[in-house]
TrEMBL record:
Region (Disordered): 162-183
Organism: Gelidibacter gilvus
Superkingdom of origin organism: Bacteria
One Gene Ontology cellular component annotation held by this UniProt entry: plasma membrane light-harvesting complex
Assigned keywords, A-Z: Electron transport, Heme, Iron, Membrane, Metal-binding, Photosynthesis, Transmembrane, Transmembrane helix, Transport
Protein name, entry field: Photosynthetic reaction center cytochrome c subunit
InterPro entries named among the record's database cross-references: Multihaem_cyt_PRC_cyt_su-like, Multihaem_cyt_sf, Photosyn_RC_cyt_c-su
């Protein structure tokens, strides 16, 4: 008899335990969900976001600081402002539409970035491995451009020292660019 009641008690205790454990289980699931969400939120502020819309040459995950630094560097090397390569926004003419590919100068600049990378990777790196810091490239925009958009033309002004520049040669792109600038 006493064994029977004991068994019933045992069953009750077992049921209670089951309820208790499943409650804990649910709590753990709910809490881990929240802590996961909290984790996401915490890490979001550290992971650099990639707001870039139209990068075809530069790394997609380039940080805002690095990209701004690079762009200022381009502008200084060529002696121009941002609007040399970036067209005005159609909605607000005071702003530039950085993602737009409307200007041919931007497309030329893409080629220039590739050319510069190519020169560094294939003709300098094998002989000057691991420059410190290794982002510093031997060849860069200013090495040729020296604060002008057309280094050849600039050098031709040095008189007899630089004779390869012929303003009458077939250079349709250069003429097109100059015509655009005069407009
Ligand atoms: C010599 C040309 C040139 C100049 C000057 C220049 N940029 Fe750029 N910019 C580029 C090119 C080329 C790209 C696209 C690179 C690519 O495709 O990977 C770009 C991309 C950008 C982007 C990313 C747009 C997107 O979301 O895709 C921003 C922002 C930007 N430039 C800002 C600037 C600012 C600010 C300046 C002035 C300080 C500036 N640029 C000057 C050539 C230039
Ligand atoms: C090896 C030398 C060299 C290097 C390095 C170089 N450029 Fe150039 N770039 C030139 C020459 C030469 C021209 C002029 C071509 C012409 O019009 O005949 C030019 C033209 C350009 C033009 C078009 C000029 C215009 O009228 O608007 C842009 C834009 C440009 N370069 C951007 C860059 C950027 C950005 C870099 C660095 C990523 C760079 N270049 C690196 C030699 C160079």
């Amino acid at each position: 008899m006493s064994q029977f009641t004991n068994n019933k008690d045992l069953m009750k205790t077992y049921k209670k335990l089951l309820v208790f454990l499943s409650t804990i289980g649910i709590l753990v699931v709910v809490m881990s969900f929240y802590s996961f969400k909290a984790d996401l939120r915490a890490s979001e502020s550290y992971v650099p976001q990639t707001p870039w819309e139209n990068l075809k040459v530069l790394p997609q995950n380039i940080s805002k600081d690095s990209l701004e630094h690079l762009m200022k560097n381009f502008a200084m090397s060529l002696g121009v402002k941002c609007n040399h390569c970036h067209v005005s926004s159609s909605t607000d003419p005071k702003e530039l539409d950085f993602a737009s590919d409307a200007k041919i100068e931007k497309e030329i600049a893409r080629g220039m970035i590739k050319m510069t990378n190519d020169l560094n990777d294939n003709y300098f790196k094998p002989y000057f491995p691991e420059p410190i810091p290794n982002q510093v490239h031997v060849v860069n925009c200013v090495m040729c451009h020296r604060g002008t958009v057309n280094p050849e033309k600039y050098l031709s002004q040095m008189g007899g020292m630089y004779k390869t520049y012929d303003p009458e040669r077939d250079n349709r792109k250069e003429k097109e660019l100059e015509a655009q600038r005069k407009q």
